[in-house]
Structure formats: structure tokens, C-alpha cells
């Protein structure tokens, strides 16, 4: 019955590799997000999709590319991984993209780049 | 630069006391504010949202919003050791309606 799920939960990889993180929500929400939480626990928005359309695209290296095949899924692909990409990546979803739309978070993917 | 600021703590309170967590934000147009709790190694979970000036109560939690002074606070009454966590404040900013999170306040409730 998980509302927002992510795979994998842990990802350990070498610098220079390409990896993907997948997210799925079964809440029937229209909007999905990717956040990065660094070692100091600062949670920062990266991307957001509303009905499969990109609506938020923060200043993120273009090595990061989100893809939303449908409203229930939002994947994050990262090319040429760097040490600084090590963080916890959270997916979230909300009913819409307007005022007072509450965001619900997935369990997170801990990415470690060696 | 739109910002949300919180004292990183740790804020230590004895069990049974009131814990007071504060947050200030820079965007006067912000209308929606959220408090999330994050246990170590877990994802943020919503505690409360508040949109109007004044107080909003839910069980042991009270959120307070003062738009004129641009601050929002969270009071936790009868604090329990299980309340020990990092509390994240988020403001929803105008334009893209994206959340801007503060850096979080670590709360320790001492048994």
C-alpha cells in the first residue's frame, strides 16, 4: 500500500557511471517532484512534472535528466556520476501544483559515488 | 533569493515540556506553509500545514503563522522522546508554487 515508492533504496557506484532512480505513486496525483538532500540535511527541489509536463527545472547539471512516462511515474537518470552527487534523493507527489497542494515523500534513495 | 531560515539546533527539551520551533521566510507573497518531521534515515512526513494568520491546532501540535512578521512556528506540547527528530519548515513561494525548505531544526526530547 506504499503511496510513493522508489527503487533502489541504496545505490553505490563508481564515478563516471550512469544510473537511474525510479519513482512511482499510487495516490492518483498529477504532480511529482525530485529533491536532493545533502549531508547537512538541506532538502532542495530539482525538478517537478505536472501531468507529464516539466514545470520546475532548477539549476541542476544537465547530467541529471528526469523522465515522466505517465502521471504515476517519474524517473531520474544521472550521467557521468561525480562524488558530489552523493546524497539522498527523494521523490514526492502532490494532487496538483498550486497553493496548498501538500507533498508526500517517498522513502528516498541513498546514492553513494565512490 | 527566496529563503526559509531555521535554527539548526539541537533544541533540547525535557520530556513533558513544550518544544517551540521557529521559521522565518523571505517572500511576502507566500501563502502556504508546512511542517515536516524527519527521523534519521527516513523521509519527511507532513505534520501540519497552515495558510491563514493565527493558530492551528492538531493534537499536541500547534502551528502559528504571522504573515506580517513573516514567521511560522510549531509548538509541540507534552513533548515525548519519540518526538526527537529534525523538523523541516517549508514555504510555498509564488510563481512556480515550489516548496522552499529550511535547513531543519533538530529536536531532542530528554527522558
Keywords:
heterodimer, A: 114 residues, mainly beta, 7-stranded mixed β-sheet, globular, B: 111 residues, 6-stranded mixed β-sheet
Share of helix of chain B, binned: under 10%
- Main structural class of chain B: mainly beta
Structural class of chain A: mainly beta
Q: Tell me the major beta sheet of chain A.
A: 7 strands, mixed
Q: Describe the largest sheet of chain B.
A: 6 strands, mixed
Gyration radius over CA of chain B: 13 Å
Q: Could you tell me how far the N terminus lies from the C terminus of chain B, measured between alpha carbons in angstroms?
A: 40 Å
Distance between the terminal alpha carbons of chain A, to the nearest Å?
A: 34 Å
- Which two protein chains have the largest interface (Cβ within 8 Å of the partner's Cβ), and how many residues from each? A-B, 22 and 23 residues
Helix content of chain A: under 10%
Label the overall shape of chain A.
globular
| Number of E-type strands of chain B | 11
Number of helical elements of chain B: 0
Per DSSP, what share of the residues of chain A sits in E-state strands of 2 or more residues? over 45%
How many H/I helical runs of chain A? 0
Assembly of the depicted chains: heterodimer
Could you explain how this protein is built, in words?
The complex is a heterodimer of chains A (114) and B (111). Chain A is mainly β. Chain A is built from no helices and 11 strands. With 111 residues, chain B is mainly beta. Chain A binds chain B through residues 40-45, 48, 55-56, 90, 97-108, and chain B through 31-32, 34, 36, 38, 42-46, 49, 51, 86, 88, 92, 96-101, 103-104.
Summarize the topology.
The complex is a heterodimer of chains A (114) and B (111).
Chain A lengths: L3 E4 L2 E4 L5 E7 L5 E7 L5 E8 L2 E5 L6 E7 L2 E6 L8 E8 L9 E2 L3 E5 L1
Parallel strand pairs in A: 2-11
Antiparallel strand pairs in A: 1-3, 3-8, 4-5, 4-9, 5-6, 7-8, 9-10, 9-11
Chain B lengths: L3 E3 L4 E4 L4 E7 L6 E7 L6 E6 L3 E5 L2 E6 L4 E6 L8 E8 L6 E3 L3 E6 L1
Parallel strand pairs in B: 2-11
Antiparallel strand pairs in B: 1-3, 3-8, 4-5, 4-9, 6-7, 7-8, 9-10, 9-11
Amino acid at each position: 500500500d506504499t503511496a510513493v515508492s522508489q527503487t533502489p533504496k541504496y545505490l553505490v557506484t563508481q564515478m563516471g557511471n550512469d544510473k537511474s532512480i525510479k519513482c512511482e505513486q499510487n495516490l492518483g496525483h498529477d504532480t511529482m517532484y525530485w529533491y536532493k538532500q545533502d549531508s547537512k540535511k538541506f532538502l532542495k527541489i530539482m525538478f517537478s512534472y505536472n501531468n507529464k509536463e516539466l514545470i520546475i527545472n532548477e539549476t541542476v547539471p544537465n547530467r541529471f535528466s528526469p523522465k515522466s512516462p505517465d502521471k504515476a511515474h517519474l524517473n531520474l537518470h544521472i550521467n557521468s556520476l561525480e562524488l558530489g552527487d552523493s546524497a539522498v534523493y527523494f521523490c514526492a507527489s502532490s494532487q496538483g501544483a498550486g497553493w496548498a497542494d501538500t507533498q508526500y515523500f517517498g522513502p528516498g534513495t541513498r546514492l553513494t559515488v565512490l | 533569493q527566496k529563503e526559509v531560515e531555521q535554527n539548526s539546533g539541537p533544541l533540547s527539551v525535557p520530556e513533558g515540556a513544550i518544544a517551540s520551533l521557529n521559521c522565518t521566510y523571505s517572500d511576502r507573497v507566500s501563502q502556504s506553509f508546512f511542517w515536516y518531521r524527519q527521523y534519521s534515515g527516513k523521509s519527511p512526513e507532513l505534520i501540519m500545514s497552515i495558510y491563514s494568520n493565527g493558530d492551528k491546532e492538531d493534537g499536541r501540535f500547534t502551528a502559528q503563522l504571522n504573515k506580517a512578521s513573516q514567521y511560522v512556528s510549531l509548538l509541540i506540547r507534552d513533548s515525548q522522546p519519540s518526538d526527537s527528530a529534525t523538523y523541516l519548515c517549508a514555504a510555498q513561494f509564488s510563481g512556480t508554487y515550489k516548496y522552499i525548505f529550511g535547513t531543519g531544526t533538530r529536536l531532542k526530547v530528554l527522558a
